[in-house]
Every structure is written in structure tokens, then in C-alpha cells.
Amino acid sequence: MSDKNYFVTVSREASADFEEKRSVFIGHAKPVSSAEEAMEFVKEKKKEYSDATHNVFAYLLEGGRVAKYSDDGEPQGTAGVPVLDTLRKSEVDGVCVVVTRYFGGTLLGAGGLVRAYSHAAKIALDAAVIVKYEKYEVFSLTCGYSEYQKILPVLSANSAVVDETLFEADVKVIFALKLGVIDKLAPKISEITFGKYLPLKEGERFDYR
């Protein structure tokens, strides 16, 4: 995963296809968290499309530090590299793409192959929906019921993501904020509660909204 305060990936597994001079190209994309998971996806697609002429793949992990590709029998540099380049240009991380090709009898040439595999990877990523995850800080806040009614609009105004609210003797709210927002929010909560209640940081996570 990236060291940045955000990372870009795909939200789901998806496929898309097109035809070029009677050759059918099917791009498959999936979010993955490890090289093992990526290769499992590759094996799955190779088994599913075992009758295909080629099953080319590429994946990127850990902010681009881990990468692998295969031309799977296509001329060197015309298949796996274009797929990997498409991943890099899309700035995605934690993604594996497999491009299945059924040869249609007409040679595409090196340039044609590069364009076809790049396009197959691109439409697969689009189908899988590229999303940007940002780093959020997770907080808990325990307060009285009257204070809770005043704090809730403040949380909403600061785009807090409320994960859970527990109504017991007091109210406990677990919520997440984008990095830095707490610096603006905490003084407001302190003012509302006369310094009696303050958010307690519980951790961090990546999320998209």
C-alpha cells in the first residue's frame, strides 16, 4: 500500500471486452492485497479461459514497489508491458488485470498488439470503477444526551463519517474524519461541552466517499 495519505484502486472485480480484426480481447480487473491473491486471480482466469490463445496479466502492489507481468506467449513487450503501463498511468495500486485473447486469424503487428492490450486493460479498469481512498482518523466521543444533540450537527458540518452510535447511560459516538479536520472540530466540541468532553483518537483507516 502507498505511503501517501491516499491511494487509488478499483472498487470491485469486473470485465469488459472488444473485438479487433476478429480477435476478441477480454480485460478482467480485480482489487488485490498481495502477490498471492493476484496470482490466484490469474490462475482462476487461466482456468476459466483455458481455451483462449493468451491470458496476459500484470499487477501493481505497495505503491508500485511490487510489480509483475507476463506476455503469455505474445511477442516480448507487446502485451504484459502495455497492461502494466496502463495500470501505472491510471495511478492505481493493489490491482491485477488479466487480458484474455482469442486469436481471430489476422496478425495485428507489434503496434496493434500494444494498442489492443492497453485498451483492454483500460476498459477493464473503467468497468471495475477506479476510486480514490483517503486516509481518515477514527475517533470516539462519549458525552451526555443533551451534549450529543448539540454535537451531532457539528459532526455533520465537518463531514464526519459516523460509524456507530451507542445509547447507554451516556452516548458514545465513533466517527471518522479526513486528516487535519480534528484540529478544527475539537475546539468546537470543547466549546459546546465547556471542556468536559473531547474526542479520543482510536486509529486510522483508508476510506472513500
Task: Give a nutshell description of this structure.
By secondary structure, the chain is α+β, with helices and mostly antiparallel strands. It is built from 5 helices and 10 strands, in the order E-E-E-H-E-E-H-E-H-E-H-E-E-H-E.
User: What is the approximate shape?
Assistant: elongated
Major beta sheet summary:
5 strands, antiparallel
Q: Count every helix, treating DSSP H or I runs of 4 or more residues as helices.
A: 5
How many β-strands, per DSSP? 10
Name the average pLDDT. 95
Uncertain segments are: none
Task: Tell me roughly what share of residues is in helical segments.
Answer: 25-40%
Strand content: 35-45%
The first-to-last residue Cα distance is 19 Å
The run of helices and strands is EEEHEEHEHEHEEHE
Structural class: alpha+beta
Radius of gyration (Å)? 24 Å
General description of the model:
The longest helix is centred in the middle third of the chain and has 20 residues, at 109-128. The chain has five helices and ten strands, in the order E-E-E-H-E-E-H-E-H-E-H-E-E-H-E. With 209 residues, the chain is of the alpha+beta class. The radius of gyration is 24 Å and the shape is elongated. The chain has helices spanning 35-48, 80-89, 109-128, 145-157, 182-192, and strands at residues 6-10, 14-20, 23-31, 54-61, 66-70, 95-102, 130-143, 161-167, 171-178, 200-207. 33% of the residues lie in helices and 38% in strands. The mean pLDDT is 95. The two termini are 19 Å apart. Helix 4 (145-157) packs antiparallel against helix 5.
